[in-house]
Amino acid sequence: MPDGPILTYVVNRSALSSILAAAPAKLFIPYLDIIGNVDVRGLEIHDLRCFVAVAARLNFTRAAADLHMSVPPLSRRIRAMEGTLKTKLFIRDTRRVVLTPSGVNLLPLAEKILHQFDTLPDAVSHDLACSSQPIRYGVPPWLHPELSSRLERLEELYAERLTLIKRRRRSQEAISAIVRKDLVFGFARSAPTNTTLSSVVVRQESVGAVLSRAEYGARRSISLEELVKLDYVTDRRDSDTEYRRQVDGLLRATSLLKRLRHNPADHSSAAEAISTGRAFAIAPISEGARETSDLYHSAETVCLPVDGLDFVLPTCLVWSTELAQNDRNSRDVINTAVGLCQGGTPRLDSA
Q1: Is 47 within 8 Å of 80 (Cβ atoms)?
Q2: Assigned domain for 347 exists
Q3: Dihedral-angle region of residue 308 (phi above 0 means left; psi in -120 to 50 means alpha; beta otherwise)
Q4: I need a surface site. Which of 10, 113, 148, 334 has the fewest CB within 10 A?
Q5: pLDDT at 146 over 60
């Protein structure tokens, strides 16, 4: 069963066959032999989505919420996938979920396959009857819920005359795609330095330390001197918290900083180190932002401001200056997106 963006275009098996026939063959050829002699005909695209979601969260409950499904069918999907591939993808027990070496190897391939599958509508969009101009924009995995809701409003405003297509892109991926004009706009954690691009700050987040609630729940802040006595936890996959690269630079200037040595795929051991007061992580302070950006957000942790660490994390909406000047629809959508994301009432140009 098709899912995601392709659902708009694919309504039956024959329609899917038409799209696959029209799509460039190179979309799937590189992956025909990636599993060796294992018969993968039983795998579905949704199986890969389930695998990637669990690999990103290392938590079945959170992954199920991301996928808008319950935990039991997600768990069954993963077990069936492991049976088809004849290998374990996760080590899981009551305390932790960890990627196996096979899971680590499969993750980048699965992400690439999903990306190319999701671009199938783009490959055949020129053949779709009565199609409107596609406007592609990039959304990062860490976007604040308020901005996400405003982008939903953006899609509603243009639903009758334009086709807005959402693409999941991290900062550098979005900037590169905007330069190539593959995206009309996207989001970045800091303003781009490329002179062909324009940007505006649409949100700023104060960053704090994620700490044990039992140890620090009654505190209003923590000093930098106290913080550097703890181990510093960071997810080296950096899949949905790009701001850590910037914070790392500031913390690296503190020679006493200790980085917790743990398997980056072992979320549970790092979470335990934080909840027991031995370590800390970095995340936006606001509750809404923590829900999307903090891998260690739980009832056992609290996020406090750090005295002596004055760091504000900007989220910038970025677009191509030339594209906005030369394409009226793109300019209209960009202006509306800026107005919505800055909290104003947008004024739409006439069609």
Answers
A1: yes
A2: no
A3: left
A4: 148
A5: yes
Same domain, 283 and 140: no
Where in the sequence is the domain holding 194, given as residue range(s)? 130-202+315-341
Q: What token pair was written down for 294?
A: 């903090």
> Hey, is 201 helix, strand or coil?
strand
**Long-range Cβ contacts of 251-254 (<8 Å, 24+ apart):** 251/282, 251/309, 254/224, 254/228
Please, which residues have CB within 8 angstroms of residue 152's CB and are 6 or more apart in sequence? none
Q: What SS3 state is found at 56?
A: helix
- 22 CA to centre of own chain: 29
Q: Give residue 89's identity as a one-letter amino acid code.
A: L
- Rounded distance between C-alpha atoms, residue 174 and residue 73, angstroms: 33
Between 309 and 131, whose confidence is greater? 309
Domain match, 165 and 71 both: no
CATH code for position 74: 1.10.10.10
Q: Which of 99, 121, 143 is the last residue of a domain?
A: 121
Which secondary structure element, helix H or strand E, spans residue 329, and what is its range?
helix 328-341
The whole-model pTM stands at: 0.58
